[in-house]
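Quick sanity check, branched-chain-amino-acid transaminase:
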Amino acid sequence: MIVSCCINGEIVPGTQASIPVSDLGLLRGYAIFDFCRTAHGKPFLLEKHLVRFRRSAALMELPLNYTDEEITKLVYDTLEHSGLQEAGIRLLLTGGFTPDSFTFTEPTLIITAEHLALAPEKEVQTGVKLMSHTYLREMAEIKTTNYSEALRLRHQVKGQQAYDILYHHNGHILELTRSNFFIVKGQTIITPSDHILKGITRRTVLDLAATVYKVEERAVLWHELAEADEAFLTGTNKRLVPVAKVDDQQIGTGKPGKVTLHVYQLFREFEKNYQPGYSFA
C-alpha cells in the first residue's frame, strides 16, 4: 500500500495522489520505474538504483530533469512524510500529459513510499517452486512498467502453487518476473548475462560471492537445471531465496544448499553494515 506520494516535487498522502488520465504512462504504457527499499530506516543501494533508473530513462528517451541529489532529497522527504520505519521506495517516470493521446510534452516524476513486505525466513529455509514459461521480454534491459505477461499468468501460477515464473527462450534460461536467477554447480555460481534486466541485488550478490566462489555471467541453457546442485533467485524485496523445484524438476537435493545459504548470509551481513552514500536526516 502506498502511504506517501511525491508527484513532481509535491508530497501528498497516497490516498490523495493522482495524475491526469491523459498521461502517456496510462494511455500508451510510456513509463519506466525502479524499486528499492530501506534497510535500518535508510534507503538501501539507492545510488545504484538511480544509475539504472537514469539509464532506463535515457534508453526510452524520457527526459529526467532532476539531479541524483535532488531525487535523493525527494526520496528522504517522502519517507519522512510516510512515517514508515521500513519502506519500499518506487521511482516512476511517465510520459506525462499529452493533448492528443500521443504527443509528448513533459514527463511526470513520481516517488512513492510503500509498506514493505520482505521474503519470509521460512522461504529461505525451505526453498520455493517456480513455474516455467517461454517468454522474452521486449527491451529487457529497460525497467518499463509493462508486466502484462506476468499478470496474465497469475492464475496459472496460483494453480501450480508456484512462487513465481521462470522465463526461458530458445533453450536459454532468462529471469523471473521481478527477480534474477542463479544456479550453482559445485563451487561455481552461474547467472544469465543477456536478455534480462540486471538487478541491483543480482550485482551485489555477484560481487559478494566472488570473494569466496567462482562466478560466471553467461548463457545458461535449459538442460543445466538438471545438472545444477542448487539454485536461487534474487530481488530487492526478496533478498535471496533458494529454489527447490522448477515445474517437476527437482533442483539438487530439493533443499537449500550450502553455497546458497552462505551467500545469503554474506548478503545479510552486507545489508547490516551498509551506509548510504547520501544522507538528509
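Posting the structure with no commentary besides this: The mean pLDDT is 97.
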